[in-house]
User: Which sequence fits this backbone?
């Protein structure tokens, strides 16, 4: 598995070559799709799933079953991957535009440093 970034090849997961540990792959769909969605995810070993489900239900019983089912269908039918690809392209274009405008307007006063990040 790889992480996405704006340009260049995907970066390896933080786990590197070691075996994935519980919680290595987790995140929120709120940042990827829509802030009020309030759905997160975790990729965990099979033996931890029952425990994680119990912990989650104790902490939060407010996630809509309809939202979860809709998101599952969105992912399974390939719309999520197309969304990610479309957003990567859009954000890369915006980033390039910003860098070009910044250098044109302020390049003589400031140096824009772009770190390699994901």
Assistant:
């Amino acid at each position: 598995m790889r992480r996405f970034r704006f340009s260049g090849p995907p970066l390896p997961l933080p786990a590197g070559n070691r075996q994935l540990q519980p919680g290595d792959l987790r995140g929120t769909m709120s940042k990827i799709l829509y802030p009020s969605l309030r759905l997160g995810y975790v990729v965990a070993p099979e033996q931890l799933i029952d425990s994680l489900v119990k912990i989650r239900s104790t902490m939060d019983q407010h996630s809509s079953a309809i939202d979860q089912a809709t998101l599952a269908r969105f992912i399974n039918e390939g719309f999520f991957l197309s969304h990610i690809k479309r957003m990567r392209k859009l954000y890369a274009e915006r980033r390039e535009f910003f860098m070009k405008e910044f250098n044109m307007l302020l390049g003589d006063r400031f140096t824009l440093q772009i770190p390699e990040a994901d």
